[in-house]
Amino acid sequence: MTNTVSFPFSQAISCALLAAATVVAGCDKAQLLAPTRSSITISAGTLVLPPNGTTEITAIVSEQAGTPVQNGTTVTFSATVGRVDPVQSQTRNGMAVTTFFAGNSSGVALVRALSGAAAGGEGNTNQVEITVGAAAVETVTLRANPGSVGPSGGAVDLIATVTAANGQALQGIGVTFSADQGSLSSTNVITDTNGEARTQLTTGQQAVVSATAGTKTSSNVTVAVRPGPIVSITCALSSGTGNCAAVPPSATNNTATVLFTVTKPSGGSTLRTATIDFGDGSSQSLGSLSGGTATTPVTVTIPHTYTGPSGSTPVQYTATVQATDVNGESTSASTTVIVIPRSPLNVTISASKATATASGQAVTFTVTAKEGTSDAAVESYSWDFGDGESTTTSGNIISHVYETEATEQRFTVSVTVRTPDGRTATGRTEVLVDKFP
User: Which terminus of the chain, N or C, has fewer Cβ atoms within 10 Å?
Assistant: First the structure.
């Protein structure tokens, strides 16, 4: 017995439409691929990328006759390093586009494009190489700014520039700095948008530095220690023997002249200025002390006159030469000058008497004023004859008449000498006036 199931007509039509829709939907999901003997040519916006960089990838798909494939042809992209997104893209006017993302890895990414039977031919035009990160480094150039440190040490900036084979500055590349002397503020630095990595070297000795990025290392750069300014100063008497530790002043005006010798030895840096401060409130410019050679020193002699002490205590002066070189480095050297007091004035009086008469007895006095072993310069002589009379003379010899009495008389005679610079000293003697017979 056969069982028959009956459907209303409208229900049968619905089932037929559903089946047809299913078939159409299946056709829509099928990819449109490039036909046989088509070709794909792929290109990238840039062939060098920093870590995490991106670039646009373009694939041009052409049929054998050279005409673009049908719009909507699916192209599948792949990358050996990093990733592409989207992986599949449809053509429009024969062109499909995706984006390559480099990621954190360094290396050479091979990006391919495929579609059906299309290929890149003998030239592999359907693939392109993109160098990522440190793998792209071709050259590392290192420089120091400034190229040297001062004689007492200092800091310089080290700048490493990282470039690819095409000269492109590489951003985001790790650079390792090394130095055989001193200390680095950082040994590992990432390059900026200009492809530069910077650190600072602090050293007091000559240092050799280098920088490495990827497999490339820069040439060595030597950071030298600059020679500093060097000067010396010595002192000598302008005349006579002795040294500046005990300079005798002039007896006439209480001044002492000495000679300073300032020397710029060989091996020092080039000076910009040199000045000597005499230590008595005065100074003198010495210019740049230029001249000489690398092995010949430059020497200048400067006379200077100091004021001696007003009392019995020596007076000390410190002369200092200050020098600054063309790099702004400075140095100084000093020497001491001690002016001793003048020798004390020593005054003596000698007397010679004439024969006593009824009118009196004449006595001639002669004064000798000595400063040390030398005759002192005397401006005036003030006399006190001891008998109530006195006078002032400019000469050292004078006669005075004493009245004679029935008995001998003794008088104390004194004379005060005054030097041109105001010093005074007094000498005394006694005189016996004879009686008149």
Answer: N
